Amino acid sequence: MTRLPVQPGEVLDRTKSLSFEWNGERLTAFEGDTIASAILANGNRILARSMKYHRPRGLLTADFWDPNAFVQVGDDPNVRSAHRLVENGMDVSAQNVWPSLDYDIKAANGVVGRFLTAGFYYKTFMKPAKLWPAYEKVLAQFAPGGKVDLTTPHMYHDKRYAHPDVLVAGGGPAGMAAALGAAESGAQVMLVEHNHHLGGSLLWGSDADRAAAAELAAAVTAHDNIEVLINSTVTGRYEDNWCSIAQRSHHIAVERLIKARAKMLVVAPGLIERPYVFAGNDKPGVMLSGAAQRLINMYAVKPGQRAVVFTANAHGDSTVADLERAGIDVARVVDARTGGNVVAAKGGSKSVEEVELGDGTTVEADLLITAIGWTAPTSLLNLAGDRPQYDPAAARFFSSQLPDNILVTGGIAGDGTTDQLVAHGRSTGQHAAARAEVVAATLQKLTTRAADYDGDVPSFPADNRQPLGRDPHPELFRSTTHGLVDYSEDVGSKDLFAAAKEGYDSVELIKRFTTATMGPAQGKLETVNTVAVLAEARGETIAEVGTTVWRPPYAPITLGALGGRIFEPVRVSSIQPWHEANRATPILAGQWVRPEHYGNPDAEVRNTRENVGIIDVTPLGKLDLRGADVPKLLSMLYTNKWMQLPVGGVRYGVMCAEDGVVMDDGVTGHIADDHYIMTTTSSGAGGVWEWAENWLQTEHPDWDVHITPVTTAFTSINVAGPKSRELVAKLTDVDLDPEAFKYMQVRTGTIAGVENCFMWRIGFTGELSYELHVPSGYGLHVWETLLAEGADLGIKAFGLEAQRIMRLEKGHFIVGQDTDGLTKMPSVGMNGLIKLDKDDFAGKAELADSINRTDLPKVVAIQTTDPTIVPFEASQIVRAGTNEIIGRITSSRMSPTLNRSICLGQVLPEAAEPGSTLTVVMTSGERVTAKVMEHHAHYDPEGSRLRI
Amino acid sequence: MPDFASPVLKTYPTAIGEQTLTDVSATTKALVRAPRGSDAAAELGVNFGSSRVADGTLVVGIRPTEWLVLGPADAVWAFTDAIDSTGHVSKVDFTHGRALFRITGTQSAKVLEKICSLDWADNMMPDGAATSASVAKVTCDIVRNDVDGVRSYFLASDRSSGQYLFDAILDAGTEFDLGVVPG
After folding, report:
1. Cα separation of A53 and A113, whole Å?
2. What is the predicted pLDDT for the residue at A1?
3. Total structural domains within chain A
4. Are residues B72 and B38 in the same domain?
5. Most B CBs within 10 Å, among A224, A438, A449, A622, to test the B interface
6. Chain B residue numbers touching A690 (CB-CB < 8 A)
C-alpha cells in the first residue's frame, strides 16, 4: 500500500470505504478517490498500455488530461481513470491488452517500432488496393481503446439552455474571484469548473493556498447570483458567445449539455503543465510536478520511493518539499535555471530505475518529476477568432485579439501571486459585469417582448484593469535525446524530425501526417512540444512555425450528451384514443401517427364500396381564408379560375411552382361571403401556407386576405360509400337531398349535436361521400356517434391503406408519389385546368410553354397482362428488348374490388397512348408486360357513383 | 353540445408539486387579425409581444397585427364582438385549434429552460410578455402571466401536438417537482 497518513489538503472521506475490482482483484478506496489514485494507493503503478507499442504506462498528469490512464469501467470504455471517481462495486479493467496488463503480447510491436514510423500505414497498406480488406481485418485487431458493448441500453442524457450575464470558464482562484466580482456587481453568473473541486492549483498548494481556495469557494457557493457547475467543461464557444457546456455532475443524467448564451465569457482555465521530451519519458514513474502534488496532497498517495526532480520554476521547487514531507527520498534536484538537464529515464519497461542527467551522472530513482513549464489552453479563445502569440520570455502563448464579449484572467492572462491573481480575477469579473450590462441593454432594446428600456444604451466601459505580469521562464521542450511528444498516439520527436524531412514542414500537415496532438488530450499536452520540435527541425522559431487551430470540443463529450433528450414531436388527431382502443396498426406519416388499417384493408375497401366506411382524415391540410381578395389569391395560387365560385361551391385545383412543377392539390370551399376553406395534401399543409403567405406578403400586400391554418382545429372524417347519405342524414340538420346538396358543394351546420361544422361532397374514394369537419374538441364524439348510428348500415372504419387502394382504383394521383420534383402539370393529364387566359398565376409563364410540349412524360393508368402480378412501386418500365428506361410504376396495389392488379405510372409520351404495351422490370429481374389504360380510373371512370 | 375533449388524451394523477402543470385547453381562444393602426388594433390595446387583462379576458399580441384572446367563452365573445370590424378585420374561433397549458411555480422558468432556448430573465420576458418559440421542437405561443406574484406561463401549441408537448414538459419538470393539477 502506498496510502499516506491523512494529508491536510486531501479530498478523501476516510470514513467511507469503497470496494472495487481492478483486473479482477478486489481493491479498496475512500470516497473522493479517483480510480487511478485508488489503484496507486493499492500499490499498483501501471494503469494502461500505450496505443501503438503497448508500452506500460503509469500516471503522467494525474488529472483529466492524463494520456496514460484510460480504463474500461464495466461496459463503459475509455474512462479517464485519473478523473473519474471510484464508486462502490465498480468493475475496472485495463483495456486493449492481451492476455493481461502485465504481460501484453501486443507489446511485440515495440520490437519492430523503428519500422513503424509516421506514415507507415499510409505507405504500406495502400497497395495492392485489393488486399485492403485483408489488411483491415488484421489491423482492426490492433485498434486502440476499450470495448463497446452494443447491447448497453441508451442512457438518459439531458439538455438545458442558459443565458448567464457572465459565464466563467474555470474555477481556480482567478475564475472564482471573477465570478464573485461579477456577482457582487449584480450579474447572474455561471461558474464552470472542469474538475471535481473548486480551487485549481491552490488545492495541491500550501496551507495558505488551500485556505485561500476554501475561502473563495465558500463565498462563491454561498452567493445567490452564482450557479456553480463542477465536473463540467465549457467545451466550445461559438458566434455571439453561444457556449456549449458538458455537465458531468448532474444527478438526473450521466451527462448534460448546456447551451449557454453568455453576454460575457470570462476564460480562466489556468495553465496545463507540459511534459518534457527525453529518452524514456513515458516510463512509469516519470510524472509532472502537478501530478505528484495532486497525488500526495489531494489523494494521500505516495507516488514513489526515491525521486529526481527536474525543475525550472517554483512549482517544481515546492514539489520537492511535498515529496520530502511524504517520506520520499529526493535523491537529486536538477535545476534547469542553472543549466541542469535530464537526458534519459532508464530501467525496465515497467518502471524508471535510474535517471541520466545532463552532466553525465546517473542517479538511481523510481520517480522522475519534471516541472518545465506550461501550455496555455487557449482553445476557447481560438474559437473566438483569437490567434494566440508566443512569448519566448515567458515560454508560452498569450491571447492577442479578443472580441469585446470575452475577457481572460488567471494563468492564461499572466503570472502573479495568489493575491494578484485573485485581484485580477475580481476586477475582470467586475468589468465583465459592466460589459454584460451593456449587452443586456442592447438586447432588451432590440427585443419586442422585453421590458421597456429607458434611455440610450451606454457604450462599453473603459478597461482599467491592472494587467498581470509575465514571469520569465526558460524555454524547455526537448532534451538532447529523443522521446515521446504525444503519449496518446505514441508519436516521438524522432517521428516529427523524420516527417519534417519528408516535407511535412507545416504544423497543420505534420499534425495530420503523424497524428501528433490528435489523441484524447487533443493537444493540451502535446501541441507546444510538437511546434517546438518542428521549429527545431526546421531551424526556425516557435513564433515562425505557429500553432494548429484548436477546434471544439475543448474536452471530449459523449454523443449521448450532444444528442441530449430526444425531441421527436408526434401529432395525433382527436380520434387517436379510438384508433388505439381498436388496435389500429399505426403508420407514421410525417409527424402524424395515423391508422394504416384495422386488421384487413381489403375488407375495409369492400365494405366501403358496398356499405359505408369512415376514415379519420384530420391531417388533411386546412387553411381558413378570409377577406375580400381571397378569390384573387386563389387565382394566383391555382392554375384554374376562382373568381366566380359561388357560396356553397367547392372546386378542385392544382398548384404549381413557378417552374410549372406540380406542388400540391386540393379542394377549396366557399363557406360564406369572404370566407373560404382551402384543403391541401397532408404533407403539403405547412408548405402551402408559407407559399400563400409569401404571395401575400411579398407580391400582394395590398390584398385583404387573412390566412389561418386550421388543420387541427377541425377533426375531419370522410364518410364514404353508397349508404353514406343515409348515415349522415341521421346526424345532421343539413339538407342532404341530392338536388339541395350536390357533388362538389359545401354546407355548414350541426353534426351529432355539434355546432359550427362544415361538410362537403367530394370523392377521393370514388364513392358517394361526405367529408365532415367538426371542431376538434368534439371530434371523437362525432366519430363514435357515426359508428353507433351506422351499425345497422354495416359501417366500419377504414384506414390509410384502404383509402390508398380506393383512390388508386379511382385513378387519383397523389402529389409527391405519382408526381416528382420534375413533373409539370401537363404530365398529369389536367391541361383543362390550366387557364392561360387568366391575368397571372404561379407557373403561368412556364406552363404556357410546356402545355404544348410533346416530350413530357405522362401519368397513365397501367394494367399488367397477368392480372395477378403487382409490380412494386418504383419498378422500372423499359423499352421492350432493351434496358432503356422509359418510365416507372408510381403506385400499385391488388384491387379487392376488381380482383386484379392496378397501377399508375409515369412513362415517356411515345409509350403513353392508351393500349400501348409496356415492359415492366420486376425486382426479381423478371420482365412482365402491361398495357396503358384509356382512363386514369380503373373503377367507375364515369364517376357515376359519386354523383348519386 | 357534448363535453369538450382535451388534446391531452392520457390521464394523470393529480400531484401538487412545487411547480404545477395544468391543461387549460378548454379555454376559449379567439384569433383576431386587424391592420396596424386600425380602430380594432387600438381596442385590442396591446402590441405584439405583450398582453393585458381586459373584461375578463387575456388579450395577447402574438404576432404583428394578430391577437389571441383567451378566457371564458362569454367574456371572449363579448369582447371580440365589440371590436370594431371596419376594414379588414377577422375573428376566428381558435378554441379547438390550440392546446393550452399553464405552468406555474418559482422554478417554472427553469423547467422551460430545458426545452426552450428563450431567455426567461425578468427584463427579457417580464410578466405580461408574449412571444413565439420552439418548445421541445413544437412551435408555441408563450405568454407570461404570473399568478399572485408567482411566475406562470401559458403555452399554446397546435392541438395535435398537445399530448406530446404535455409529456415533454412533464419530463423536463421531473427535477423541479413538477406535478399535474387539473384545470
Report:
1. 7
2. 56
3. 5
4. yes
5. A449
6. none
Query: d(Cα A486, Cα B2) in Å, to the nearest integer?
Result: 74
Residues B68 and B115 in one domain: no
Q: Which residues of B touch A753 (CB under 8 A)?
A: 1-2
Predicted ipTM > 0.95: yes
Q: What is the pLDDT of residues A228-245, one digit of tens each?
A: 999 999 999 999 999 999
Whether chain B has a CB inside 8 Å of the CB on A716: the answer is no
Residues 110-139 of B with CB under 8 A from A: 113-126, 129-131, 136-138
The verdict on A494 and A406 lying in the same domain is no
Q: Are A785 and A694 found together in one domain?
A: yes
Measure the CA–CA gap between A83 and A231, rounded to whole angstroms: 9
Domain that holds residue B64: 28-93
Distance between CA atoms of residues A475 and A390, nearest Å: 11
Sort out which chain A residues have CB atoms less than 8 A from B125's CB and list them: 449-450
Average pLDDT over residues B64-88: 96
A700 and chain B in contact, CB less than 8 A: no
Residues on chain B touching A624 (C-beta within 8 angstroms): 92
Question: What is the predicted pLDDT for the residue at A695?
Answer: 97
A902 Cβ contact partners less than 8 Å away, ≥ 6 residues apart: A808, A809, A861, A863, A892, A893, A894, A895, A938
Q: For A563, phi and psi rounded to 5 degrees?
A: -70, -35
Per the CB < 8 Å rule, is A163 touching B9?
A: no
Region of A537 on the Ramachandran plot (φ > 0 left; ψ -120 to 50 alpha; else beta): alpha
pTM, 2 dp: 0.92
Domain that holds residue A912: 852-948
What's the confidence (pLDDT) of residue A196? 97
- What per-residue confidence (pLDDT) applies to A122? 74
What band does A126 get if pLDDT is binned at 50, 70 and 90? confident
Of B93, B113, B135, the residue that ends a domain is B93
- Determine phi and psi for A164, rounding to 5 degrees: -70, 150
A318 touches chain B (CB under 8 A): no
Least confident segment among A97-101, A406-410, A853-857, B49-53 = A97-101
Q: Which residue of B has its CA nearest to A580?
A: B9
Domain check: are A540 and A624 in the same one?
A: no
Contact A555, A524 (CB under 8 A): no
Which tens digit of pLDDT belongs to each residue from B2-48? 999 999 999 999 888 889 999 999 999 999 999 999 999 999 999 99
**H or E stretch covering A289:** helix A289-293
Residues of B in contact with A188 (CB under 8 A): 121
Residues sharing a CB contact under 8 Å with residue A871, sequence separation 6 or more, in sequence order: A864, A889, A892, A901, A903, A920, A922, A928, A930
The 10s digit of each residue's pLDDT in A330-373 is 999 999 999 999 999 999 989 999 999 999 999 999 999 999 99
Q: Is A77 exposed, middle or buried (0-12, 13-18, 19+ CB in 10 A)?
A: middle
Q: Is B48 on the interface with A (CB under 8 A)?
A: yes
C-alpha span between A720 and A743 (Å, rounded): 13
**Inter-chain CB proximity B96 and A711 less than 8 Å:** no
Give the residue from chain B lying closest to A591, CA to CA.
B161
Alpha-carbon dihedral A822, A825, A830, A836, rounded to 10 degrees: -170
Cα(A886)–Cα(A907) distance, integer angstroms: 6
| Residue A200 CA: distances (Å) to CA of A11, A296, A377, A734 | 13, 15, 14, 79
**CA A569 to chain CA mean position, Å:** 17
- For A555-595, the DSSP string reads S---HHHHH-S-----B--TTHHHHHHTTPEEEEETTEEEE
From the list A315, A244, A260, A297, the residue with the least C-alpha distance to A562 is: A244
Give residue A139's identity as a one-letter amino acid code.
L
